[in-house]
Amino acid sequence: MMQIACPHCGSRAQQEFMYERTVDSVVPLDAPTDKAMAALFTRTNPRGPDDEIWRHTYGCRAWMVVTRHRVTHEITAVRAVGPEVLP
Amino acid sequence: MSRYSAFSLLRGAFNGQSHWKPAWRHPDPKPHYDIIIIGGGGHGLATAYYLAKVHGLRNIAVLEKGWIGGGNTGRNTTIVRSNYRQDALHNFFEFGLKLWHGLSDDLNYNVMFSPRGALTLGHSDADMVTLAQRGDAMRCDGIDAELLTRDQVAKLEPLLDMSRTARFPIEGGLIQRRGGSARHDAVAWGYARGADSLGVDIIQKCEVTGFVRDGDAIVGVETTRGRIGAGRVGICVAGHSGHVAGLAGLRLPIESQTLQAMVTEGVKPMINTVIMTQALHCYISQSDKGGIVFGGDPDNWPSYAQRGNPMIMENAVAQGLALVPALSRLRMLRTWSGVTDMSFDGSPIIGETPLPNLYLNGGWCYGGFKATPASGWTYAHTLATGKPHPLNAPFSLDRFERGATIDETGSGPMPSSR
Amino acid sequence: MTAPRRAAKAATLNFTFDGKAYRAVPGETLAAALLANGVKLVGRSFKYHRPRGIMTAGVEEPNALVTVGEGGRREPNTRATDVFVYDGLVARSQNRWPSLRFDFGSVFGLFSKALPAGFYYKTFFGSAKRWMIYEYFIRKAAGLGNAPTEADPDRFSHRAAFCDVLIVGGGPAGLQAAVEEAEAGKRVILVEQDAILGASLIRDPQTLDAGWVEATAARIRKAGGRILTRTSASGYWEHDLVTLTQLCVEPGQTAENRLAQRLWRVRAGRVILATGSIERPIAFANNDRPGIMLSQAVRTYIRRFGVVPGQRAIIATNNDDAYDTADALIAAGANVVAVLDARETASGRAAHAQAAGMTVHLGAVPKAAKGGRQGVTGLVASVAGATQSWAVDLIAVSGGFTPVVHLHQQAGGTLNWVEEAQAFVPGSSRQNVTTIGGAAKPEAVGVMRPISQPKKSFIDFQNDVTLADVDLAWAEGYRSVEHLKRYTTLGMATDQGKLGNMAALGRLAEQQGVSIPEAGLTTFRPPYTPVSMGLIAGPGAPHGGAHIRRLALYDLHAAKAPIWQPLGYWFRPRAYPQAGETLATAALREARAVRTSVGMTDVSTLAKFEITGPDAAAFLEIICATSVAKLAIGRGRYTFMLREDGLAFDDGTVWRLDENRYLLTSSTGGADRMATHISYVRQYLCPHLRVSAVNVQEHYAGIAIAGPRAKQVVEGLIGQDVPRHMSAIAASIHGLPVHVLAASYSGERAFEVYCSASEAPSIWAACEAAVLAQGGCLYGLEAMEFLRIEKGHLVVGGEIDGRLSPYDLGLEKMLNKAGGFIGAAGLGRPALRGKGRRQLVGLEAIEGNIPEGAMLLSAPNAAPQGHVSAAAFRVLEGGSIALGQLINGFDRHGEEMIAASPTRGQSARVRVTHPHFYDLAGERYRD
């Protein structure tokens, strides 16, 4: 069980979080069918770090992007996303 | 290959069991093979065996980066069944189940396939209808399935909590009596021994590091033991499918997740069948050594770590104890994890890739062990003929972009929601 | 140094072993008490049922496994060395029949020559059914103890803790580290699996003694540190999470407060492992006989428990440590006939012993033990090439020391080989963990290779794996260490290879002609010692980790004693039967009331979202596949939602309550999924939209009132005109604010009344009175199902099963032509438009009742072309009808088929129809 540093709440146990998907599998709203399906249905699935979307579901419910190593599970960055951090 | 038999064991009693030959050779790679299979797990070895046995091919190599059977073949809960609702799935797995029933004799290696029954519990009338639907779908395609009443379930598994006030009251079940469990390692070893005896080279400690290309076409592989040429190459590496396909520049509809399982200390027989449930994600069986084998949900986030997670384990065990309270004082002896290749409809992928001569067998999610014979048989057909066998034709790689997914649970493309 | 002898009169605790009564001294392990009472034979091995005694004094014990406790507290496979005797302890031997002394299973031992490692792979051929016959007997012979057959009466709790430094191991190294950290101001937790701290100092008194242990523990506590004894660090997980298992009472013991064990999840800033090492046995023939004991265990029994395990002992060693055992034995009055030292040259310690008059043989390696189930009677050894034998009743063995590196390895750490200790020690780690003490610096040893024949030279005692088995595995090509382990079952017993792995590795390396580190090492997996399943489940066990959510109206329903229906984490009323009614008759009565007068039902569990803000409509047009923007204020409409792949996954209604305020409802079962989906779209995909999407599922309770008299009922309740169909108004009932939405799932004129969940009981009571006054009744899910099927309404999980597109469901006309919704791109996939799709149809019985879930066949024994997703009866006229999915179903209306359910022995002849059986024109929605 990992420990994830929520940008809003601080360091919390993974139990409070849910994984959504990788950043590169986000389907943009305006993508045509081929691009949308490529995003939805293919992955690099690296044996190394990747950017992932997580949500602090049982905490502040905010979404964040977590850079996490797929083998060691080391987390090197967490960044807040959503309306609150818009420029 | 020296035949295995009770007689040969008895003979060993008088010669100190000194007459046994290696179950397979440890050859060096040749410069070129007609077909190279990447991955010496159960599926890869079964593929090699059927290529040799069914298709008469001999110039075949299985390349394994570690030791054969060391991936998910040796890290699962050994359940064998074909009780799927979708016809493409149950027809495929049923073909395999038939092979399972004769496998020990065919391989002359006892894989201890034990058809003790795969029992799925229903916890409400709605569950029972769902189970009946699954059973009906199977029966209409000639596959055994039987609905059980509450009393029949209680008789079959006396330690289940049958009280009406249970959190998951048991209303009945669906049993596939021809399903059961097998000895996982023996499957890999039996296929390896069989394939080796037909001339297949099983090359361990040989990791593929790249593909040799002629234009788009694949003509060989780079390995830690040098370049090896090939007529056709079949990827068969389960949780590492994305990585190996990535060496050829492909992105797959696969995300790797960790699935853990656990086993208790051995006890005298207490669980008779393989118990699964309609409402929970927990499966329980008892091994021949007496350990209660437990499995639950995969970790719902991508990972290549062959390492468990206490929170998933707590959930699976809590579910198991809600069903069988008498397990409480047993002790969990060992946990282990496999890297599962979660596909985006929950069904496997066996077939061609966009690259000529390169084929893919993967995406088994957490259900690959039982598929071993059928997977090997159909993948061998695909590799030998260049075309899918009718049973694996629906499991093509392009079905996702076409919209022809085979989604048993109906839960959609995100593996994390499966 | 002399040790106090165990005083018989101090033995105040009563316990039984195999029904025979004994007494124990408080603080004694069961193993110590059995030895003190002269019991040598304690267990039987797994495969050959060989007689076994006590070999160790710790958690690594492979042989002396017993079942302790009774009823639901019965714990099989309990190590006698790891349970402290309590008054009334009941222990039984295991894996023997009819008795421990005369075990029928020991015939397997007679055939051991024909039953080498992996013998079962080579025989028992024939059909799978035939294997099951052999297997029946194999399973009976396998296993060890018997599991309980009843539920556990005790509790297991879970607890979280945080600390700066977690120290594992309460020996001198761990205590010293803990006191330093604690006094430096760190938050410290120190755990020790034994019942006491510093037990090794009793075994091996140094300058530090029991007084030091006590004083140090007091200092740790004074500095705010927490000390947990009888607590084992069982797993080291990621990000420095360590799970601890704490025994609140001994195995099988009744707890005062019913708390048996506690699981701690400790998130540590840093972890210090002071876990010590485990002594290795020596391989020689019959090295498993009762009376053969690890050298340090002998010292522990003498010095800690005052129990001398033998009177005429011989010591076999490859290191200096075992000489201390000779001293302890002599001090306890036993006779040490010789020390067999495998090293060729005398160490300083050996020379010192020789000078003190001890018989020491150098270059001496044991070949075979003599004796049977009642214990050893002698030892044969090779001494400088010649064979010698001695008559003894105790053989103390020491093959060196294996550092306890399990937690370090679980943490992802590497191991380094130390040649002079012939051992792996912790190397680097990617987590914040260090190892200190004996686990980091094991004692130097001489290399010891067994010279005797490898048969019956056990290396995995419990599983009966011998050196001969290792050799056989090698000869048969099982050459990787993992193959060796799996083929021979080495290291897979309850001790998980704590004793035997290194001996096997040594043999394998020898076979391969490589060094031990080159031969490789299997992975240590959690837990370090086995953990009770009840403890892992913890407080989650009774409800399987899935709590039931209580309806706001639960008490009011319960008072009516309904038939409950489990639905996810809810239980909802399925029907409210009156005296003499069955589910079916009650549901039909309720449904008829809705068709003819009025009924009401609780729909509180529906997912509900309040969407507000200037971009609310734009947001809904992304979530919903139907058009929303043109909805007038106060109006609502049916909607459905697609996944990104274009397939339908939920449906509901959307209501425009105000200019920029909408209410979206969707299915109960999909509520969590929809909540996540909406949050993802709003927060991640559309952060720029000016919209707020709030989950109000449990904020609002909902009551549906349906039937021809529903209008009168609701008018009376709200004292104003009711909204027309698919319109909404704000109103009040008894002064409490409500939303009244005129929506119908039943096919009748109907209203959904939404109110604050806390006010729901009084509003429900008011509604119920009004409904009853109109001659209506309550209805449950079963009646609702009848009504909606007849009306042809879809249900999520039934018709909307996650596999059909809106095209397949006949919803194409409702799709938002402007696109832009989630799933629009996915709908462009060619196969969704191809022939052969399953499509929604109605089914009407021509003969028989349609079984729900049945397969649709065009002829008997033909392949299924679809299935029945929901079946019911026409509510008023009777007659079996159903909804189903059928390949190319839209084009097959009028076709006759068979709905077959072989598992239930039921079938019906059906006609394919339009999926609406009731009021196709919607006349009944009009006033």
If you had to describe this structure to a student in words, what would you say it looks like?
The complex is a heterotrimer of chains A (87), B (418) and C (927). Chain A has 87 residues and is mostly beta strands. Helix content of chain A is 10%, strand content 38%. In chain A, the strands form 2 sheets. In chain A, strands 3-4-5-6 form a 4-stranded antiparallel beta sheet, with no helix packed on it. In chain A, strands 1-2 form a two-stranded antiparallel sheet. Chain A is globular. With 418 residues, chain B is α/β, with parallel strands linked by helices. Chain B is built from 11 helices and 18 strands. In chain B, the strands form 4 sheets. In chain B, strands 1, 2, 8, 9, 10, 11, 17 and 18 form an 8-stranded mixed beta sheet that branches. Chain B is globular and about 65 Å long. The model of chain B has no long low-confidence stretch (mean pLDDT 95). Chain C folds into 7 domains: 8-123, Ubiquitin-like (UB roll), CATH 3.10.20; 154-278 and 401-446, 3-Layer(bba) Sandwich (FAD/NAD(P)-binding domain), CATH 3.50.50.60; 281-399, FAD/NAD(P)-binding domain, CATH 3.50.50; 453-518, Arc Repressor Mutant, subunit A, CATH 1.10.10.1100; 548-605 and 698-803, Probable tRNA modification gtpase trme, domain 1 (Gyrase A, domain 2), CATH 3.30.1360.120; 607-696 and 809-827, Alpha-Beta Plaits; 835-927, Elongation Factor Tu (Ef-tu), domain 3 (Beta Barrel), CATH 2.40.30.110. Chain C contains 22 helices and 48 strands. In chain C, strands 8, 9, 10, 11, 12, 13 and 26 form a 7-stranded mixed beta sheet that branches. In chain C, strand 40 and strand 41 form a beta hairpin.
CATH architectural type of the largest domain in chain C: 3-Layer(bba) Sandwich
- The mean pLDDT of chain C is 95
CATH class term of the largest domain in chain C? Alpha Beta
Low-confidence stretches of chain C: none
Q: Can you count the helices of chain A?
A: 1
Q: Shape of chain A, please? A: globular
**What is the string of helix and strand elements of chain A?**
EEEHEEE
Structural class by SSE content of chain C: alpha+beta
Distance between the termini of chain C: 103 Å
CATH superfamily of chain A: Folate-binding superfamily
As for the number of domains of chain C, it is 7
Largest interface: B-C, 124 and 119 residues
The count of DSSP E runs of length 2 or more, i.e. the number of strands of chain A, is 6
Taking the sheet with the most strands of chain A, its summary is: 4 strands, antiparallel
User: What's the N-to-C terminus distance of chain A?
Assistant: 34 Å
Structure class of chain A: mainly beta
Number of domains of chain A: 1
CATH class of chain A: Alpha Beta
Mean pLDDT of chain A: 95
CATH architecture of chain A: 2-Layer Sandwich
